[in-house]
């Protein structure tokens, strides 16, 4: 998997979430927080810049209620070397929970709480930066906005981008722009090695639109 592939996937994510995203959810099993998960979070935030952490949430699975979350965090964060400690810091202590084994009614309530937390944090704003703004301009010049405007699902948008070859054209146009320097189109050897190890970003980083 080449650096070009990584860069195109990052660019596709920017296009699919223009003019910006409301939240990044790092969905993590409370029982299996590994160094690979931490590295994945680092890679995502490095790609979009530290300001993205204002919109980042840690979503713990296998947690059924607020009491369980508080007890789990109290124990997990008591260790100064806890892998969770840095994750929580990256997400500015914005921690949500869900338990997929719960009954339907409880799952609906937890889902509503997650959406409410995201909306309250975003306050009708979304994360954006010069990269998003420049991509929107160039997408318009290439005639791509029309093909995107009626699509809501992020994954469908990315699929349309790839199949129409619009992503390739956009990549060639924006690659030399200053705003796509170290923060976006420079993938260090360490980051590339990590990406290869993970086989892409397997730990889910969910981009949610309001």
UniProtKB/TrEMBL annotation:
<dbReference type="InterPro" id="IPR006703">
    <property type="entry name" value="G_AIG1"/>
</dbReference>
<dbReference type="GO" id="GO:0005525">
    <property type="term" value="F:GTP binding"/>
</dbReference>
<protein>
    <recommendedName>
        <fullName>AIG1-type G domain-containing protein</fullName>
    </recommendedName>
</protein>
<dbReference type="InterPro" id="IPR027417">
    <property type="entry name" value="P-loop_NTPase"/>
</dbReference>
<feature type="domain" description="AIG1-type G">
    <location>
        <begin position="2"/>
        <end position="136"/>
    </location>
</feature>
<comment type="similarity">
    <text>Belongs to the TRAFAC class TrmE-Era-EngA-EngB-Septin-like GTPase superfamily. AIG1/Toc34/Toc159-like paraseptin GTPase family. IAN subfamily.</text>
</comment>
<dbReference type="Pfam" id="PF04548">
    <property type="entry name" value="AIG1"/>
</dbReference>
<keyword id="KW-0547">Nucleotide-binding</keyword>
């Amino acid at each position: 998997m080449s650096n070009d592939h990584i860069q195109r996937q990052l660019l596709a994510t920017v296009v699919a979430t223009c003019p910006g995203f409301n939240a990044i959810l790092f969905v993590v099993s409370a029982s299996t927080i590994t160094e690979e998960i931490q590295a994945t979070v680092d890679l995502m935030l490095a790609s979009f810049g530290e300001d993205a952490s204002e919109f980042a949430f840690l979503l713990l699975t296998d947690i059924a209620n607020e009491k369980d979350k508080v007890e789990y965090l109290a124990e997990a964060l008591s260790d100064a070397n806890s892998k969770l400690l840095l994750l929580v810091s990256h997400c500015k202590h914005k921690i949500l929970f869900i338990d997929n084994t719960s009954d339907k009614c409880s799952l609906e309530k937890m889902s509503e709480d997650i959406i409410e937390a995201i909306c309250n944090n975003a306050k009708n704003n979304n994360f954006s930066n010069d990269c998003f703004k420049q991509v929107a301009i160039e997408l318009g010049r290439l005639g791509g906005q029309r093909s995107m405007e009626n699509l809501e699902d992020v994954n469908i948008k990315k699929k349309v981008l790839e199949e129409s070859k619009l992503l390739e054209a956009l990549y060639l146009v924006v690659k030399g722009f200053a705003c796509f320097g170290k923060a976006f189109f420079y993938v260090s050897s360490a980051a590339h090695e990590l990406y290869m190890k993970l086989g892409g970003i397997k730990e889910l980083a969910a981009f949610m639109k309001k």
